[in-house]
Each structure stands twice: as C-alpha cells, then as structure tokens.
C-alpha cells in the first residue's frame, strides 16, 4: 500500500512546510498554506534504485542548428513567438478572465488544423457544446479541430497517445487538471506542478507543441508557483483593457526567440483581428489642438510604436492633490513631478495630475519621460504642443535628458506617419541618411520647459 504523507504547501510560491503556520516562510503571505497529501513519490521522480547513465559531454565549439518551426497562421502570434511554434516546446499563456485567451487559442487551433496539421483542443472549463458555439460565432465550425472536454490527466494522456501524433495540443486551463496519484484538489500547487511536468514530458517525447492556459492573480501574475514559468519554454501574457477593443500579446520569456516582443489584436464581432500597423491605430482618434497631448515614439521588442500620452493638470482643492495614472508607472510620474519642481521651477504641488496612455497600451520603458513631461507642461501652460512633433528621452534626477535605444527605428516610424520634427536627447547616434525628419536635440528638461514658456 502506498505510504501517505501530509504536508502544507503554499499556494502562492509553492513552499512546503511539515506543519501549518499562519505566515509562509517563503513569500511571507498570510493564510496561504494548504494541507496536501501525497501518495508515494511525485510522477516521474527518480527512485533510489534507479541506476545512473553516464552522459556524453561535448564542447562549446561547433555549429548550432536553428530549431524547426511551423507557422501558426497568425502573423502577430508568429512575431511574438519568434517565427512560429517549435515542435516539442511548451508555451504558457496567461491573462485576465474574459480578455480573449480562449478565443485566441481557438483561432490558433483552427488555423493550424486548416493548414493540414493535427490540432487538439482540450477544455477543462467549458463543455464541448460551449466551444462549438464560440466556433460558430467566429466562423470556424468547419475547421478540422479535434475537440474534447476532460480534467482527468490520465484520460487526457490516453487520448493524446491514441491516433496520429498531434502537432498542437491546447489545454484550457492547466489549473483544472488533476492526477489520480495526488490526493489534492485541482488547482493546488501539487496538482498544477505535476500536471505541467507530465504534459511537458509527453510533448517533448512526441514532438508536439504544447500550449497551456494559466489563470492570473489580482496582481496580474500567473497563478501558482513560479516553478511553472521556469518549466515551460515560452511565457506569454495577454493584456488589455475591457474598455478598449485592443489586446496586447506580450512575450516575457522565450527560449526560442526574443523577449519583450508584442503582438497587437483588436477584439471584433468575428473574433480577434490582427493589427499590422498599431501606430496608426493608437493615433487614429488624436485631437492635436488640445493642450496636454504629446506623441511618444516608443518601441516594443523590435517594433516601433507611436502612442499619445495625455496629461491633465488642474488646481486642487484638496490638502493632498490627486495623482492618477493609466498605462504608465505611478512612481515614474512622482519622480518626474519632483524633477520638474526642483530643476525647472514648474510647481505642481497644488495641482491634481492625471496621466493617461491613449488606446489602452501599457508603457514600461523610461524613454517616455520626455513625452510625459511635455504633456504635463503643456497642460499647465494651456499651450498645445505642435501637431507634427514627437518626443522621446529618459530624464534623470538632475533633469538631464539621457539617450534612448533604437533611435533610428523610432524616427523612421515617426516620419512614415507624417511627423516633421522630433525632440530627442542630445546624446545618441542616429543614421541621419535613413530619414529626413528634423531633429531638435535637448540636453536638459529645463530647455523643454523654457521653450513652452513655463519656466521662469
């Protein structure tokens, strides 16, 4: 009879404790330890009687073959994954409920199946009838996708092993699966970890591309231990604001391609539609005659994207003025306001400040500092910024404007969209022959504020 052992596992970080404690010793989370019973060793774990096999060691010299890929049929998804899916790879995609993960994966499965490959879609959250209704609404009912609804991992493995080798396996979602050998509820750390490990081993043995769906926590992170993100080859996040139709697919880990690459989709009646030119989309409804609007020439991965940063500065009647930010780092805004006050004399301590990145895009790079500062000063002074200007540059605590990366690519995209002048840092090399855009070099933030007539 298998020996049972009870342990307490943290549902946030996966730390194991022999007894219950209120505060997890690993992540310091309160009331996150849950009792789980394990019967025997973990699936796939080595036993003491296993005899080791001597490995053949190689040198670092020699050619490296590029991993074979096959196209997903979606150009934006191919861009994010580095050119397509690699057979035998495991991908994890996370996103908020209702953001469109299942829609994206159903469209992916249909595109792969229509190309002549075998795609299997296994749903643990919806019945097959619900998936069929979504397929009919998206116009994908005729796609030869193998569909199933099951949460027992043993039955899933038996199904995958029968018949021809699948080229694509979609599991929606990994938190719903459970293994017979583990006496723990579905969604617990032990079940999620064991199911992920078993499915990855099957995919690598069979040469199938495995795509797992993961739920996210309130903080936007994929639920479960971080170990799952380390086990897979690629981690994707599907982001977006329900108030906007745009969705961003972002790669934060990719063993077969570049990270921080994004794909842009638009949620429409017929499903997710690819956006091949996101700059025109984010600037499509721009009102250039309003003070407090500046265009930032950003870059996501290898793709330059122009987006409008909007600011509103209004006198405050409160003892502590409000600071509201959407799509940007709130700490970055606080630093920028302090630099404007200390280095430029632009006092915003008695004003409410609202900053918004138009279109629902989230900006993480510090090169947006100069555009945000221009929008703030413009709103305070009431003078609109020139319609054909773009801004980019990182601002230091001294007020100096520092250089940004990929300057040439950013400026070429700005010129293509009809902009005539770019306000950029004084440092930084550009290929001047690649574009005809006029350049205005700025060394200090005070130069920008003086030009807008807000510094004394």
In short:
The chain is of the alpha/beta class and 456 residues long.
Explain what you see.
- There is one protein chain.
- The protein has 456 residues and is an alpha/beta fold.
- The protein folds into 3 domains: 4-39; 75-276, Rossmann fold (3-Layer(aba) Sandwich), CATH 3.40.50; 281-451, Ribosomal Protein S5, domain 2 (2-Layer Sandwich).
- The chain has helices at residues 75-81, 101-114, 128-138, 153-161, 189-206, 227-231, 278-282, 330-344, 369-381, 407-416, 445-451; strands at residues 4-10, 16-17, 33-39, 90-95, 119-123, 146-149, 168-172, 182-183, 209-214, 234-240, 246-254, 262-268, 271-274, 293-300, 303-315, 323-326, 351-357, 389-391, 394-395, 401-402, 421-425, 438-442.
- Strands 6-5-7-9-4-10-11-12-13 form a 9-stranded mixed β-sheet. Strands 16-17-15-14-18-21-22 form a 7-stranded mixed β-sheet.
- Strand 10 and strand 11 (246-254) form a beta hairpin.
- The longest helix is centred in the middle third of the chain and has 18 residues, at 189-206.
- It is globular.
């Amino acid at each position: 009879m298998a020996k049972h052992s009870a342990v307490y596992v943290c549902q946030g970080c996966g730390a194991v404790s022999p007894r219950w404690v209120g505060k997890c010793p690993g992540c310091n989370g309160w009331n996150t330890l849950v009792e789980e019973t394990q019967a025997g060793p973990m699936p796939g774990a080595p036993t003491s009687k296993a005899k080791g096999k001597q490995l053949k060691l190689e040198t670092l010299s020699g050619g490296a073959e590029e991993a074979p890929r096959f196209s997903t049929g979606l150009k934006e998804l191919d861009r994010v994954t580095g050119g397509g899916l690699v057979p035998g790879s495991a991908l994890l995609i996370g996103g908020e409920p209702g953001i469109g993960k299942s829609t994206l994966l159903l469209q992916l499965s249909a595109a792969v199946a229509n190309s002549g490959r075998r795609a299997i879609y296994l749903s643990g959250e919806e019945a097959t009838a619900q998936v069929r209704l979504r397929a009919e609404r998206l116009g994908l009912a005729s796609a030869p996708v193998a569909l199933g609804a099951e949460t027992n991992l043993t039955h899933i493995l038996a199904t995958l092993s029968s018949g021809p080798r699948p080229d694509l396996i979609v599991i929606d979602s990994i938190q719903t699966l459970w293994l017979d050998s583990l006496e723990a509820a579905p969604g617990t750390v032990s079940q999620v970890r064991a199911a992920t490990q078993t499915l990855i081993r099957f995919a690598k043995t069979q040469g199938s591309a495995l795509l797992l769906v993961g739920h996210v926590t309130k903080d936007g992170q994929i639920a479960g231990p971080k170990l799952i993100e380390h086990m897979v080859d690629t981690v994707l996040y599907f982001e977006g604001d329900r108030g906007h139709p745009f969705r961003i697919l972002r790669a934060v880990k990719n063993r077969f391609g570049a990270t921080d690459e994004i794909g842009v989709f638009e949620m429409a009646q017929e499903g997710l539609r690819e956006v091949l030119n996101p700059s025109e989309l984010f600037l499509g409804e721009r009102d250039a005659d309003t003070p407090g609007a500046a265009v930032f020439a950003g870059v996501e991965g290898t793709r330059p994207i122009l987006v409008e940063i909007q600011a509103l500065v209004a006198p405050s009647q409160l003892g502590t003025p409000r600071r509201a930010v959407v799509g940007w780092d709130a700490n970055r805004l606080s630093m920028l306001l302090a630099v404007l006050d200390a280095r430029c004399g632009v006092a915003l301590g008695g004003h409410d400040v609202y900053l918004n990145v138009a279109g629902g895009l989230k900006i993480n790079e510090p090169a947006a500092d100069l555009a945000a500062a221009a929008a703030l000063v413009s709103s305070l002074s009431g003078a609109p910024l020139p319609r054909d200007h773009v801004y980019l540059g990182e601002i230091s605590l001294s007020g100096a404007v520092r250089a940004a990366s990929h300057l040439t690519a950013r400026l070429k995209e700005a010129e293509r969209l009809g902009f005539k002048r770019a306000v950029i840092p004084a440092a930084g090399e550009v290929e001047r022959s690649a574009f005809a855009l006029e350049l205005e070099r700025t060394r200090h933030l005070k130069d920008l504020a003086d030009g807008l007539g807000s510094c004394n």
